[in-house]
Amino acid sequence: MELSDRITIDQNICNGKPVIRDKRITVQTIIEFLSAGETNEEILKQYPSLEPEDIKACLLFASKIMDRNYILRHVS
To answer: What is the DSSP string of 3-72?
Structure first.
């Protein structure tokens, strides 16, 4: 799966947050639903324009984001 086919970032859509196929449904929203215990079927029922592959793409995107090293710095 090519993430760029499913996850898009456009500064004019949802303030530049990653969204699903240029829709106003953010990756964050889907991840939050999943973390709250919603099933894929429940999410797809709430968002009928989504496809099962969109949810998989959200998980893959989140996984790739977490595959980075981060340094926290204190800013005064």
So the answer is: HHHHEE--TTSGGG--EETTSS-BHHHHHHHHHTT--HHHHHHH-TT--HHHHHHHHHHHHHHHTS----
Task: Assign domain 3-66 one CATH number from 3.50.50.100, 2.60.40.230, 1.20.950.20, 1.10.10.10.
Answer: 1.10.10.10
What SS3 class is residue 2? coil
Domain spans, the chain: 3-66
SS3 74: coil
Q: What percent of the chain has pLDDT over 70?
A: 99
Residue 75 pLDDT > 90, yes or no? no
